[in-house]
Fold this protein.
Amino acid sequence: MDTIASLFSFITTPVSWVIVQFHSVYGKVFGPDTGWAWGLSIVSLVILIRICLIPLFVKQIKATRAMQTLQPEMKKIQERYKNDKQRQSEEMMKLYKESGTNPLSSCLPILAQSPFFFALYHVLNGIASNKTIGVINDSLLASAQKAHIFGAPLAAKFTDGSSKVAALGATLTDVRVVTAVMIVMMSASQFYTQRQLMTKNVDTTVKTPFMQQQKMLMYVFPVMFAIFGINFPVGVLVYWLTTNVWTMGQQMYVIRNNPTPGSKAQAAYLERLTKHVTHHEKTRSRGEKAIVKAIVSKGRERNEFERKFINSLTKVGLVAQADGTVVKGEAAVESEDGTPTTAAPKRQQPKRQTKSQRQSTAAKSADDTPEDAEPKTSLSKSDEPEDAKPATAAKKAAPKPAGGTRSKAQSGQRKGPQRPKSPSKK
């Protein structure tokens, strides 16, 4: 490990300088020789590094999303060239080049902070070996050796012997209890971070080998942290535990506000967004507009959760636009008091009456009819207009045509009067 750490010695001086600057600030509050001053200096170093790595983290998210969208195509290539591994690799590289993705982009944050990790290990190892390193002089070295975090020296390890731990002013029990608790917390935070990614922010409609690899890493990484953690000084464990907690919180924020399409996190996010948009009747933040714009641009390729979101807006008379805004639809009309109402209300069916109610209604209508009222006919003789009578009489007096009373002769018969048939003789 010392050989690997020495390879990053070029960054040892900057890392030690940053720790000393933070220590000078916290030393005025907690005391220069306390574990709080040195421990918070390491925590502040982690926060500073992770803030600087935020652009790489954003790039990692984009690369992971791009890899997830390529999973169906990758699966087709694997099935097509399952007997030709070389051709399969060539087609995979061609797919990465055409889509502009890189599988190593998802590892950028870990690769970027590895030099700082090994440089910090080199600094703490120098403190444990009673050697000045970087900008840490003899006075700072003596102060760091006196610093204890919950009874464990800053440079002590789980595997150290009792004599070495006693030289640092501590007991072997305190060192092993503190380091064991920190290793368990470090492994648990790593497991929870990976599990959160697999259970909430993965497209469940796509089943690919990539998902199986991620599930395997969910169990492999905590075991690796537990194995290597027993060889890390307490200060390095503080560093790694802090960066794991930072990663977990950062991922929770991303999953909540920018989930993967088709995942459970997207379903929860769109449900919250539906309530928010229907309440305010518009998208208020730039992130909400970006999500709505992406959903509208998909068209018929929307997944189940995105179609449900669009339908929920339509039911309340809202329409999502291509620029990410939400406006009132044509079916929504504002009433006098400003509340949106539908232009064509639904027709309501009359309430069905019981038999007793129908009988009482008929009896009431019969009682309201006057006794001397006569039923009206459509048109009586006395009501006929006078000028209509001659026309009626003329119609009756008009002679009928000669052929009107005689039916047409059937086929096969002669025209004119027919002679009666004689009875047949037997």
Q: What stands out?
A: Residues 331-346, 373-411 have pLDDT under 50 and may be disordered. Residues 20 and 136 are 7 Å apart (CA to CA). Strands lie at 148-149, 152-153, 318-320, 326-328, 332-334, 340-342.
